[in-house]
Protein backbone atom coordinates (compact mmCIF):
# COMPACT_ATOMS: atom_id res chain seq x y z
CA UNK A 1 0.00 0.00 0.00
CA UNK A 2 3.02 2.26 0.02
CA UNK A 3 2.30 3.26 -3.58
CA UNK A 4 -1.49 3.42 -3.39
CA UNK A 5 -3.53 6.42 -4.47
CA UNK A 6 -4.14 8.99 -1.71
CA UNK A 7 -7.90 8.67 -2.16
CA UNK A 8 -7.88 5.03 -1.05
CA UNK A 9 -9.64 4.28 2.24
CA UNK A 10 -8.33 1.34 4.24
CA UNK A 11 -10.21 -0.56 6.91
CA UNK A 12 -9.50 -3.71 8.89
CA UNK A 13 -12.73 -5.68 9.26
CA UNK A 14 -13.08 -8.57 11.64
CA UNK A 15 -15.85 -10.79 10.31
CA UNK A 16 -18.06 -13.42 11.91
CA UNK A 17 -18.28 -11.49 15.17
CA UNK A 18 -21.36 -13.58 15.95
CA UNK A 19 -19.07 -16.62 16.46
CA UNK A 20 -17.38 -15.24 19.57
CA UNK A 21 -16.90 -18.73 21.03
CA UNK A 22 -14.43 -19.73 18.27
CA UNK A 23 -12.58 -16.41 18.03
CA UNK A 24 -8.92 -16.53 16.90
CA UNK A 25 -8.20 -12.80 17.25
CA UNK A 26 -9.40 -10.65 20.13
CA UNK A 27 -11.05 -7.27 19.59
CA UNK A 28 -8.08 -5.65 21.33
CA UNK A 29 -5.61 -7.33 18.94
CA UNK A 30 -7.64 -6.16 15.95
CA UNK A 31 -7.83 -2.60 17.24
CA UNK A 32 -4.11 -2.54 18.04
CA UNK A 33 -3.14 -3.79 14.58
CA UNK A 34 -5.49 -1.36 12.86
CA UNK A 35 -4.17 1.55 14.90
CA UNK A 36 -0.54 0.66 14.19
CA UNK A 37 -1.30 0.55 10.45
CA UNK A 38 -3.45 3.71 10.44
CA UNK A 39 -6.64 1.82 9.56
CA UNK A 40 -10.24 1.99 10.66
CA UNK A 41 -11.31 -1.10 12.61
CA UNK A 42 -14.70 -2.68 12.94
CA UNK A 43 -16.13 -6.11 13.60
CA UNK A 44 -19.03 -7.32 11.50
CA UNK A 45 -21.41 -10.23 11.15
CA UNK A 46 -23.15 -10.96 7.89
CA UNK A 47 -25.32 -13.51 9.72
CA UNK A 48 -27.13 -10.89 11.80
CA UNK A 49 -26.06 -7.81 9.74
CA UNK A 50 -24.10 -6.28 12.59
CA UNK A 51 -22.06 -3.28 11.36
CA UNK A 52 -22.06 -4.38 7.69
CA UNK A 53 -23.81 -1.24 6.41
CA UNK A 54 -21.86 0.90 8.86
CA UNK A 55 -18.52 -0.46 7.56
CA UNK A 56 -19.46 0.43 3.98
CA UNK A 57 -20.73 3.86 5.07
CA UNK A 58 -17.44 4.62 6.82
CA UNK A 59 -15.36 3.57 3.81
CA UNK A 60 -17.53 5.54 1.38
CA UNK A 61 -17.42 8.65 3.57
CA UNK A 62 -13.64 8.39 3.91
CA UNK A 63 -13.20 8.00 0.13
CA UNK A 64 -15.42 11.05 -0.42
CA UNK A 65 -13.42 13.07 2.13
CA UNK A 66 -10.11 12.00 0.57
CA UNK A 67 -11.23 12.85 -2.96
CA UNK A 68 -12.64 16.20 -1.82
CA UNK A 69 -9.41 17.05 0.00
CA UNK A 70 -7.36 16.07 -3.05
CA UNK A 71 -9.50 18.21 -5.37
CA UNK A 72 -9.43 21.23 -3.06
CA UNK A 73 -5.64 21.00 -2.78
CA UNK A 74 -5.02 20.50 -6.49
CA UNK A 75 -3.26 23.17 -8.51
CA UNK A 76 -5.93 23.04 -11.25
CA UNK A 77 -8.70 23.71 -8.71
CA UNK A 78 -6.78 26.62 -7.21
CA UNK A 79 -6.13 28.03 -10.70
CA UNK A 80 -9.84 27.72 -11.54
CA UNK A 81 -10.75 29.60 -8.37
CA UNK A 82 -8.42 32.48 -9.18
CA UNK A 83 -9.76 32.76 -12.75
CA UNK A 84 -13.40 32.74 -11.64
CA UNK A 85 -12.95 35.07 -8.65
CA UNK A 86 -14.81 38.33 -9.17
CA UNK A 87 -14.21 41.44 -7.12
CA UNK A 88 -17.28 43.49 -6.32
CA UNK A 89 -17.30 47.23 -5.82
CA UNK A 90 -20.20 48.71 -3.90
CA UNK A 91 -21.51 51.78 -5.75
CA UNK A 92 -23.23 53.16 -2.65
CA UNK A 93 -26.66 53.14 -4.34
CA UNK A 94 -27.65 49.52 -3.63
CA UNK A 95 -25.97 48.25 -6.79
CA UNK A 96 -22.62 46.58 -7.23
CA UNK A 97 -20.14 46.65 -10.06
CA UNK A 98 -17.80 43.84 -11.13
CA UNK A 99 -14.25 44.46 -12.25
CA UNK A 100 -15.44 44.15 -15.86
CA UNK A 101 -17.78 47.11 -15.47
CA UNK A 102 -21.18 45.43 -15.56
CA UNK A 103 -23.45 46.32 -12.69
CA UNK A 104 -26.33 44.63 -10.97
CA UNK A 105 -28.62 45.41 -8.08
CA UNK A 106 -28.13 43.42 -4.92
CA UNK A 107 -31.61 43.84 -3.53
CA UNK A 108 -35.14 44.30 -4.72
CA UNK A 109 -36.97 47.32 -3.33
TrEMBL record:
Superkingdom of the organism of origin: Eukaryota
Signal peptide: none
Listed InterPro entries: P-loop_NTPase, Rab_GTPases_membrane_traffic, Small_GTPase
Gene Ontology MF terms in the entry: GTP binding; GTPase activity
Region Disordered, residue ranges: 88-109
A Pfam family matched in the record: Ras
Name under which the protein is recorded: Uncharacterized protein
Amino acid sequence: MAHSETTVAKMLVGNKSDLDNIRDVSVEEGKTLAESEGLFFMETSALDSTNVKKAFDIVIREIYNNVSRKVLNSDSYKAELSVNRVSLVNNGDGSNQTQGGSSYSCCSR
